Amino acid sequence: MNTLVFDIETVPDVDFGRRLYDLGELPDEQVAKAMYALRRQDRGGDFLPLEQHRVVAISCALREGERFKLWSVGEPGENEGQLVQRFFDGIARYTPNLVSWNGSGFDLPVLNCRALLWGVAAPRFWETGEGETEFREFRYNNYLQRYHWRHTDLMDVLSGFSSRNRVSLANMACLLKLPGKLGFGGDQVWDAYQRGDLAGIRRYCETDVLNTYLIYLRFEQLRGRLTPEGYREETGRVRATLSASTEPHLAQFLAAWPEGV
């Protein structure tokens, strides 16, 4: 079975914010400030509701056969609808087991909102094995059900499906002595986007995917699906991929990843 680990990065959907709050011709920066301020006033924090997020990066790691591949979907600045369609097309192509960190609580709901906006088709993701279909096994194991394994939201599973027990990706990576965020956090994405640093956002997204995949390998060992030898083989495959890359952020990640971890 193929495994696809994914993560998204988002910015405020300022076009939607203008319509929602009747903000006229205010510049993007001022619209975003208003969106954050209204959220703080309503909820005491500035993390926007899911429908107010616009996807600017989707990064993935694919474990297929003997191959491990890490990449960001599409090209920097590509139309959001195209990025979202490419992601769901990948699910249709590989029918992978999905792995995420808070993907059920954030990434997938956001992707589904944006798919609705842009008229994206995602039949494989929404397959449930009902009716006349070749995917009858999806009735008992699909991407939509919280307790199915076709999508493993590691944050949700490791918390015992309790919001009180959730751990951030950064803290879990630190606990397991993994590289973690490497000096860039989700709260910096909007500022980076305003500077036009889409490449930096995509690099950050890719390191989140790497951390998530390495935690997943630990989880697979925890539940007996990987032996210690198998775990070393899988991490060795990741190290080889990073070593072969010329990307500075991947070299930085590898340098921050202790041997034997």
- CATH class membership: Alpha Beta
**Which percent band covers the strand fraction?**
5-15%
Report the order of strands and helices.
EHHEEHEHEHHHHHH
Topology, number of strands? 5
CATH second-level architecture:
2-Layer Sandwich
**What's the gyration radius in Å?**
19 Å
Q: Could you give me the name of the CATH homologous superfamily?
A: Ribonuclease H-like superfamily/Ribonuclease H
Total count of helical runs of at least 4 residues: 10
Mean pLDDT rating: 96
Output the CATH topology: Nucleotidyltransferase, domain 5
Topology:
Layout: E1 3-12, H1 14-21, H2 28-43, E2 53-64, E3 67-72, H3 80-94, E4 97-100, H4 103-118, E5 151-153, H5 154-158, H6 169-175, H7 189-194, H8 198-222, H9 228-244, H10 248-255
Parallel strand pairs: 1-4, 4-5
Antiparallel strand pairs: 1-2, 2-3
Helix pairs in contact: 1-2, 3-4, 8-9
